[in-house]
User: Fold this.
Amino acid sequence: MAASGSGGSRADNGYGSQQPRRRKGPGALATAYLVIYNVVMTAGWLVIAVGLVRAYLAKGSYHSLYYSIEKPLKFFQTGALLESHKYLLIAKYLSGIVPSSVVLTAFQVMSRVFLTWAVTHSVKEVQTEDSVLLFVVAWTITEIIRYSFYTFSLLNHLPYLIKWARYTLFIVLYPMGVSGELLTIYAALPFVRQSGLYSINLPNKYNFSFDYYTFLILVMISYIPIFPQLYFHMLHQRRKVLSHTEEHKKSE
Assistant:
């Protein structure tokens, strides 16, 4: 955040341990649920991808494509938040499927839902910004690959191409997505300050104040420690997963 290639599940268990220990996975019902969930999510992000392409071909421009995929984007990105806690708690017991940090994954999911609703949906003036398209494209490609990866992993038939894409394309997609997110938040700041969106001023009966403008700035600052952790974590996982897969292929 890996599972085996077509050669079997042994390749990714333990990531280099000579005597990998098998973990007990969920039952057939839980596995079926997870497969269905991931297939639906893969299909949903494919719908978003097709919507972007069709809108671009119809308009002949990449500007303001957000409106063509606004509803499915909100639905499927929010779906990731609603289901992620169940998915991670169950899937972590599947051998090699979720080697990444649950905390980092949760931050990523929540930050995307936050961008979708609390920024892009709430500050309509930013919906025409090119930065929105930047993170939408990055999310779309990432999620199609990620949910495909989980689906094939659960079925124990993970093609090497999908594993390679999962642990390689993030090198470009993550910086691209984060850049789009930060630029969109930055573009929203003047409108948030002017409108006082979501802010609570004193005096009030709760004796509590909240400045959404300042909160958004703090959110942007939080990317400084979090993003490098996530990025270098994925680089570390890439070295372990792909190098171990190559060693496994050579030993066959």
About this structure: The chain has a mean pLDDT of 84. Residues 27 and 162 are 25 Å apart (CA to CA). DSSP finds seven helices and no strands in the chain.
